[in-house]
TrEMBL record:
SUPFAM superfamilies: Thioredoxin-like. It comes from the Bacteria. It holds the Pfam family 2Fe-2S_thioredx. This is (2Fe-2S) ferredoxin domain-containing protein. Gene3D superfamilies: Glutaredoxin. The lineage of its organism: Bacteria, Bacillati, Bacillota, Bacilli, Bacillales.
Length: 107
């Protein structure tokens, strides 16, 4: 799922594959997100990257979307698919949004 023309990139999904998230369906979420990107034919504008721990273990499985700065928690394979569908429509995934760091004032 590599994107070679980054000019078309609209969403970069960071999928936590740290220990706690992996115990909370991290692998299944990762595969569901990637499968849905393929199903929606969104591979030209949505890119995914597996990460290690993002430091929000209580919210596992965590998924982060940039450049929007949206952090999502308690993700499941189903909500992973819904996230991709929402991004394709230009929406957020209500119910799983933890915070938006793009709108958080700097200290």
């Amino acid at each position: 799922m590599a994107i070679y023309n980054l000019d078309q990139l609209q969403h970069h999904i960071l999928l936590c594959n740290g220990g706690t998230c992996m115990r909370n369906e991290g692998e299944e979420v990762t595969q569901a997100v990637r499968d849905e990107i393929a199903k929606q034919q969104a591979g030209g504008f949505i890119h995914t990257t597996r990460t290690k721990c993002n430091g929000r273990c209580d919210d596992g499985c965590v998924t982060i979307v940039y450049p929007q700065g949206d952090w999502y928690g308690k993700m499941t394979p189903e909500s992973g698919r819904e996230l991709v569908q929402a991004l394709c429509k230009g929406d957020k995934l209500d119910g799983h949004l933890i915070t938006n760091v793009a709108n958080t004032p700097a200290n």
